[in-house]
Amino acid sequence: MILQESMNWVLVENISLTQLEEGKIIETYAGQKTICLLLKGNTVLAFAATCPHQGAKMCEGWMDAKGQIVCALHHYKFAPESGRNTSGEGYKLRTYSVDIRGTEIYLAINS
Ligand code: FES
Known about the structure:
globular; binds FE2/S2 (inorganic) cluster
Protein backbone atom coordinates (compact mmCIF):
# COMPACT_ATOMS: atom_id res chain seq x y z
CA MET A 1 0.00 0.00 0.00
CA ILE A 2 1.31 3.43 -0.92
CA LEU A 3 0.63 6.28 1.46
CA GLN A 4 0.45 9.62 -0.28
CA GLU A 5 1.67 12.71 1.47
CA SER A 6 -0.54 15.73 0.98
CA MET A 7 0.95 19.05 -0.01
CA ASN A 8 0.15 22.27 1.75
CA TRP A 9 0.96 25.59 0.14
CA VAL A 10 2.51 27.68 2.91
CA LEU A 11 3.08 31.43 2.69
CA VAL A 12 6.59 32.74 3.31
CA GLU A 13 5.41 35.46 5.65
CA ASN A 14 8.50 37.57 6.27
CA ILE A 15 9.81 38.12 2.74
CA SER A 16 8.22 38.98 -0.59
CA LEU A 17 9.33 38.61 -4.19
CA THR A 18 10.50 42.22 -4.39
CA GLN A 19 13.00 41.66 -1.56
CA LEU A 20 14.94 38.89 -3.30
CA GLU A 21 18.19 39.73 -5.07
CA GLU A 22 19.50 37.79 -8.06
CA GLY A 23 21.90 35.05 -6.97
CA LYS A 24 21.68 35.77 -3.24
CA ILE A 25 20.68 32.89 -0.95
CA ILE A 26 18.28 34.04 1.77
CA GLU A 27 17.40 32.00 4.85
CA THR A 28 13.81 32.38 5.98
CA TYR A 29 10.92 30.17 7.02
CA ALA A 30 7.61 28.85 5.73
CA GLY A 31 5.30 27.79 8.52
CA GLN A 32 7.53 25.96 11.02
CA LYS A 33 10.18 25.05 8.45
CA THR A 34 13.42 26.97 7.97
CA ILE A 35 14.28 27.11 4.27
CA CYS A 36 16.42 29.00 1.76
CA LEU A 37 15.22 31.06 -1.18
CA LEU A 38 17.17 32.00 -4.28
CA LEU A 39 16.19 34.25 -7.19
CA LYS A 40 17.81 32.82 -10.32
CA GLY A 41 16.83 34.72 -13.43
CA ASN A 42 13.05 34.99 -13.30
CA THR A 43 12.65 31.93 -11.11
CA VAL A 44 12.36 31.70 -7.33
CA LEU A 45 13.85 28.47 -6.01
CA ALA A 46 13.50 27.03 -2.53
CA PHE A 47 15.62 24.41 -0.81
CA ALA A 48 16.70 23.13 2.58
CA ALA A 49 18.42 25.54 4.94
CA THR A 50 21.12 23.03 5.83
CA CYS A 51 23.53 21.07 3.67
CA PRO A 52 22.87 17.31 3.39
CA HIS A 53 26.58 16.62 3.87
CA GLN A 54 27.33 17.92 7.36
CA GLY A 55 24.61 20.45 8.04
CA ALA A 56 26.29 23.75 7.15
CA LYS A 57 23.95 26.69 6.61
CA MET A 58 23.23 26.95 2.91
CA CYS A 59 22.64 30.71 3.22
CA GLU A 60 26.38 31.07 3.88
CA GLY A 61 27.06 29.57 0.47
CA TRP A 62 26.72 31.24 -2.91
CA MET A 63 25.59 30.76 -6.50
CA ASP A 64 28.50 30.21 -8.90
CA ALA A 65 28.81 31.37 -12.53
CA LYS A 66 27.10 28.15 -13.72
CA GLY A 67 24.07 28.75 -11.49
CA GLN A 68 24.94 26.01 -9.03
CA ILE A 69 24.83 26.68 -5.32
CA VAL A 70 28.03 26.03 -3.43
CA CYS A 71 28.10 25.03 0.23
CA ALA A 72 30.50 27.27 2.14
CA LEU A 73 31.94 24.50 4.32
CA HIS A 74 33.34 21.90 1.89
CA HIS A 75 32.31 23.48 -1.43
CA TYR A 76 30.02 20.66 -2.58
CA LYS A 77 27.77 21.94 -5.35
CA PHE A 78 24.04 21.46 -5.92
CA ALA A 79 21.56 22.34 -8.65
CA PRO A 80 19.06 24.58 -6.84
CA GLU A 81 16.23 23.44 -9.16
CA SER A 82 16.53 19.71 -8.42
CA GLY A 83 18.87 19.43 -5.44
CA ARG A 84 21.17 17.20 -7.49
CA ASN A 85 24.72 17.11 -6.10
CA THR A 86 26.51 18.34 -9.23
CA SER A 87 30.00 17.97 -7.76
CA GLY A 88 29.40 14.21 -7.50
CA GLU A 89 29.56 13.26 -3.81
CA GLY A 90 26.15 11.57 -3.93
CA TYR A 91 24.10 13.80 -1.64
CA LYS A 92 20.69 15.31 -2.42
CA LEU A 93 19.57 18.73 -1.28
CA ARG A 94 15.87 18.88 -0.42
CA THR A 95 13.98 21.26 -2.70
CA TYR A 96 10.46 22.68 -2.53
CA SER A 97 7.98 23.69 -5.21
CA VAL A 98 7.36 27.44 -5.31
CA ASP A 99 4.24 29.33 -6.34
CA ILE A 100 4.31 33.11 -6.77
CA ARG A 101 1.00 34.88 -6.15
CA GLY A 102 1.46 38.58 -6.81
CA THR A 103 4.53 39.33 -4.74
CA GLU A 104 3.79 36.60 -2.20
CA ILE A 105 5.87 33.42 -2.17
CA TYR A 106 4.26 30.09 -1.33
CA LEU A 107 6.05 26.78 -0.83
CA ALA A 108 4.65 23.28 -1.11
CA ILE A 109 5.37 21.62 2.23
CA ASN A 110 4.53 17.98 2.96
CA SER A 111 2.07 17.47 5.77
S1 FES B 1 28.59 20.63 4.98
FE1 FES B 1 28.10 21.29 2.98
S2 FES B 1 29.62 20.41 1.73
FE2 FES B 1 30.09 19.69 3.73
